[in-house]
Amino acid sequence: AQTVTQSQPEMSVQEAETVTLSCTYDTSESDYYLFWYKQPPSRQMILVIRQEAYKQQNATENRFSVNFQKAAKSFSLKISDSQLGDAAMYFCAPVKAAGNKLTFGGGTRVLVKP
Amino acid sequence: DTGVSQDPRHKITKRGQNVTFRCDPISEHNRLYWYRQTLGQGPEFLTYFQNEAQLEKSRLLSDRFSAERPKGSFSTLEIQRTEQGDSAMYLCASSSGTGMIRYGYTFGSGTRLTVV
Fold first, then answer.
1. A6 to chain B: which residues are within 8 Å by CB?
2. Alpha-carbon distance A24 to A43, whole Å?
3. I need a labelling partner for B83 at 20 to 30 A (CA). Which of A29, A109, B60, B100 fits?
4. Cβ separation B45–A103 shorter than 8 A
5. Would you give the DSSP letter of residue A7?
6. Phi and psi of B84, rounded to 5°?
7. A88-96 and A32-39: which strand pairing?
8. pLDDT in tens, B30-77
9. Residues of B in contact with A102 (CB under 8 A)
């Protein structure tokens, strides 16, 4: 079974600044994918960014980028130029390549100060 | 297609009553998932369907919980004899078989259950 740890319950960032959210996971799989999801208050979860474990290059999606360290089983999310709309819960979730079930971490709440 | 729809959005029920939630996935998606999320926590997997077949159930899904997807389209999640510990947000998500790895899940807005 996969376990996912997000060690920061809450992070605060000034608007336009950068914040990094940490995620570590434990898996015995060699081929898997990793996702970051965003859950705004009272709104549905949406996919922010994904990473294939077989790729060394870190994924980037506009202001969102990841730092994937496969050996360390670490998958952090960096939000650059933070905006008020980035305020939300963020969840890390790995899934094995042949699988179908996302396992979510406990989440990190991001607060953006104007 | 308006995405994944869940009904109702909110449900308040007395302890011991039965409740049923409905989820309508994206029409092209053959996989449907149910998760439970308590306040301040990440979603926990309950069960998933591929078409009409229920392929996996979590140990969290006690005998009081049952889920169906009779025609491979919408799904229902029923909780019998509700307990206060069942109070949570129940999330439904869907994906295509091939698209799941690339696009992840598409989530609904959830049904918030409060057992009083």
1. 42
2. 26
3. A109
4. yes
5. -
6. -60, -30
7. antiparallel
8. 999 999 999 989 999 999 999 999 999 998 888 999 999 998 899 999
9. 45, 104-105
Residue in the block written with tokens 């889920």: B67
**How many whole angstroms separate alpha carbon B57 and alpha carbon B39?**
22
Question: Tens digits of per-residue pLDDT, A51-88?
Answer: 988 888 999 999 999 999 999 999 999 999 999 999 99
Type of residue found at B94:
S
Cα distance between residue A48 and residue B42, in whole Å: 16
- A chain contacts of residue B107, beta-carbon cutoff 8 Å: 44-46
Read off the pLDDT band of A32 (50, 70, 90): confident
Task: Quote the minimal CA–CA distance from B56 to chain A in Å.
Answer: 9
**Which DSSP category does A30 fall into?**
S
Count CB pairs under 8 A between chains A and B.
Answer: 53
pLDDT of amino acid B16? 98
Check pLDDT > 60 for residue A100.
yes
| Alpha carbon distance A90, A102 (integer Å) | 14
